[in-house]
Design goal:
The chain has helices at about 5-15, 30-35, 40-50, 70-75, 75-80, 90-110, 115-125, 135-150, 155-165, 170-175, 180-195, 200-220, and strands at about 55-60, 65. A two-stranded antiparallel ribbon has the order 1-2. The chain has about 240 residues and is mainly alpha-helical. Keywords: DNA-binding, Transcription, Transcription regulation.
Length: about 240
């Protein structure tokens, strides 16, 4: 194991064991390096690495602290990696979204507050029956964000939000190229909202699966066979 990796592992074990808790200040560098049997340079590199993934927070002139370790904060590094995805992987992200989001929607049917469900339906009503594609996609993102938040599981919500963001471009392309995309999205959103209001987790899961699967199927069929896969895969789908 590299020296820096060893330093990272030892700090991690201190956190896992409860020796360092969220918000705690790390001991002075000289004290901590001696306690862990590490050089000060390897300890500094470990602190830098753990700061990048939001485990530690260096406050200039004050010291180094353990962050809140909240799931949304820790998963920001996953978001950075996801942002580097290429268009040829978008179908893989849709597959992950189809596995996770229906489960979150089913949980929301059981846990989401009545006021939150009412606000969700108002969100759909404000969109109207003939929205622009940009308005529809913005509304779609907010609609799904509220539902996964309503599932009451911050880890699941952060993962779904991260994966969902990568599919935004494909959703815009669908709205521009598929004749009935807007109507289908509105219909499916209303069905999901109705299932939530009825406290029907099976119905909510089914409609969420239908909704996400529809975009996935469209994308699979819309990519021309001659386009191949690569960074410009979505650019091969031209509005008609």
């Amino acid at each position: 194991m590299a020296v820096t990796d060893e330093a990272i592992e030892k700090i991690k074990q201190m956190i896992v064991a409860g020796e360092l808790r969220p918000g705690d200040r790390l001991p002075r560098e000289a004290d901590l390096s001696g306690r862990l049997g590490l050089s000060r340079s390897s300890l500094r590199e470990a602190v830098k690495a753990l700061t990048l993934i939001n485990v530690l927070n260096v406050r200039q002139g004050d010291g180094t602290y353990v962050t809140s370790l909240e799931p949304a904060l820790l998963l920001e590094s996953l978001s950075f990696v996801v942002d580097l995805h290429r268009d040829d992987t978008v179908l893989q992200f849709f597959e992950v979204r189809r596995l996770l989001e229906p489960a979150a929607t089913a949980l929301a049917a059981q846990r989401m507050g009545s006021d939150e469900i009412a606000e969700l339906r108002c969100l759909l009503d404000r969109l109207g029956d003939s929205p622009t594609v940009d308005d529809l996609v913005a509304n779609d993102l907010e609609f799904h964000r509220r539902i996964v938040a309503g599932a009451g599981n911050p880890v699941l919500a952060s993962m779904v939000d991260t994966v969902s963001a990568t599919t935004q471009r494909a959703r815009i392309w669908r709205g521009l190229t598929q004749a009935d995309a807007v109507a289908a999205t509105l219909r499916e959103h209303r069905a999901i909202a109705a299932s939530l209001a009825a406290r029907d987790p099976d119905g909510a899961r089914a409609w969420a699966t239908v909704h996400i699967g529809g975009v996935e199927r469209w994308l699979t069929s819309a990519i021309p066979p001659t386009a191949g896969v690569g960074p410009s895969t979505l650019d091969a789908i031209r509005p008609t």
